Amino acid sequence: MRYSLGRKFSVFYASLIYLFLYMPIAILILYSFNQSKLNAVWTGFTFDWYVKLMQNSDVLEAMKTSLIVALISTLAATMIGTLAAVGMYRYHFRGKTALDAMLYLPIVIPEIVMGISMLALFAQLKVPLGYFTLIAAHITFSVPFVVVVVRARLAGFDKSIEEAAMDLGATPWQTFVKVTMPVIAPGILASAMLAFTLSLDDVIISFFVAGPASATLPLKIFSMVKFGVTPEINALSTLMLVVTLAIVIFAERIRMRKE
Amino acid sequence: MLGPMVELQNVVKRFGQHTVVHDLSLHIQKGEFLTLLGPSGCGKTTTLRMIAGFEHPTSGKVKLDGEFVQDLPAYSRDVNTVFQSYALFPHLNAYENVAFGLRVKKVAREEIDQRVKQALRLVQLEEYASRKPEQLSGGQRQRIAIARALVNNPKVLLLDEPLGALDQKLRKQMQVELKHLQKQLGVTFVFVTHDQEEALTMSDRIAVMNKGVLEQVGTPADIYDRPATRFVAEFIGETNLLTGTVKLRDSRRMLIDCGGMEVAAASLQLPENEKVTVAIRPEKSALSLAPVETGIDQLVQLPGRLTERIYCGGITRTVVTLPGGIPFVAVEKTDQLLPVNEGDELFVNWQPEHGVVLTR
């Protein structure tokens, strides 16, 4: 088969884009299995860096912090965000449009502004930096994303099934628990996964609001990188990548199956 | 005789500036099949939703089995609704959909099972109990929706255009089934539709609505033979309308001048020169080649020209153009057509008492 010049060029162009997107990640993963301490020469395959990582108590501590913060903030953000989305969907009230828009605004506010403003707030209120501030900050930036995802799910929601439930004798609360929740559950779950990954890899906001004893994993990596990128960091990044990807794929599969 | 099952007293519903239902009063008897009929946007669904409890009347009262319910939420009212879109719970199977109402009312487990199975048997869908709504056909979903409502033994079953999404054949079949079900159970049905034929075949009484106003309430025969307003005459079935003014009147007959044509009709208490409309059903009129020898008060006879014949199987609809270019539709038996062609002259006639005189 012969391809035209235009076609060859478009294939080449597309390949470049994907290469550019995935090459650095591929190299990062590859070098996490490299025997050499230098990220330049390939000398042989090893799992040493992963073993070493698991013995690094600082890293393990940061991992624990990250998981705790991610779990708690995901749970809270999902609950707050879901209720907000359902409320915005169901009720009409004065100023709804403005409030609705303000829910999404934090998505576009520069993270550094969010970080500094939260730091200023906590300082003002004399709240010591630590787990509490970290979790509060993570909830804050996750909520808008939860609202966006849940509302997308609600857009395809047939309101008459809520009326049907009430018509059959269910109180508004029973209707929410027995009908609304189960029907939008895939959206809620997907939003929770999103909130979890957002929390897990946040650097900028966490940088401002984390205390000395509550460094998250990304912050730990950030500080390690100051002394050069070691294969150990490659290994750690690879692990984070695997965990994040697994969560995203899981969330997508639930979403696809339910739709 | 007990009081009515549903009573609407001077009900008004406004959405913002827009009045959807104007001062509507209506009594619905126990065990009655009442149809709210009207074009889309006439307020019939809003009226139904006020009975169900999804809308709160702006003013007026709603009585259900003798008790005022206008301030009760939907979940505290002893009525159930079959929704236009069926509104089955997508995450529950047919059995659980039907059981929903009983479960929230905390009915005992064995009783739920017995009643759900009975309801499914009633709609002939016992074998489909474990299917999810998405695995059911339109007609089956429809029946599950009916079973889900009826299983609660409601005082009134409200049906919001439930047959709208079905194809013609299934629609006819469901009309018969619904009517049988209603007779068999003796439950009061309030049925909303914009399909006049459906209303005529199914209802005990029809309430015709237009622009939020109740135009007429009566049996299908009342509505069809004695429409109270021009709107009802036009909306239900096919009708010929001739407008004119009252010229002469005695105790038995009055003569109406319709643009030069003289039309006799049964006498009404109307002043001379009153503007009126005469409505004549196509099947009440006849065609003749020459004027019939009789008095003007015995038979209304108007000359016209044959414009079009539309074959409809056993009958043929024949359009005659009257003087002044007014089209008039008559019905002929297809095997007994008059020997005339398009453009030929002929006469339309009907008995004066078959012309219904309308003043609004």
Automatic annotation (TrEMBL), chain B:
Keyword Cell membrane: yes
UniProt xrefs under InterPro entries: AAA+_ATPase, ABC_SmlMolc_Importer, ABC_transporter-like_ATP-bd, ABC_transporter-like_CS, Mo/tungstate-bd_C_term_dom, P-loop_NTPase, PotA-like, PotA_ATP-bd
Keyword ATP-binding in annotation: yes
Cited Pfam families: ABC_tran, TOBE_2
Limits of the ABC transporter domain: 6-236
MF GO annotations: ABC-type putrescine transporter activity; ATP binding; ATP hydrolysis activity
Record's catalysed reaction(s): ATP + H2O + polyamine-[polyamine-binding protein]Side 1 = ADP + phosphate + polyamineSide 2 + [polyamine-binding protein]Side 1
UniProt EC number: 7.6.2.11
SUPFAM superfamilies linked to this entry: MOP-like (SSF50331), P-loop containing nucleoside triphosphate hydrolases (SSF52540)
Keywords noted in UniProt: ATP-binding, Cell membrane, Membrane, Nucleotide-binding, Translocase, Transport
PROSITE patterns hit by this protein: ABC_TRANSPORTER_1, ABC_TRANSPORTER_2
Signal sequence residues: none
Gene Ontology CC: one annotated term: ATP-binding cassette (ABC) transporter complex
General function of this protein: Part of the ABC transporter complex PotABCD involved in spermidine/putrescine import. Responsible for energy coupling to the transport system.
Quaternary organization: The complex is composed of two ATP-binding proteins (PotA), two transmembrane proteins (PotB and PotC) and a solute-binding protein (PotD).
Family statement: Belongs to the ABC transporter superfamily. Spermidine/putrescine importer (TC 3.A.1.11.1) family.
Family matches, as NCBIfam families: potA
Name of the protein: Spermidine/putrescine import ATP-binding protein PotA
Species this protein is from: Brevibacillus borstelensis AK1
Gene name tied to this protein: potA
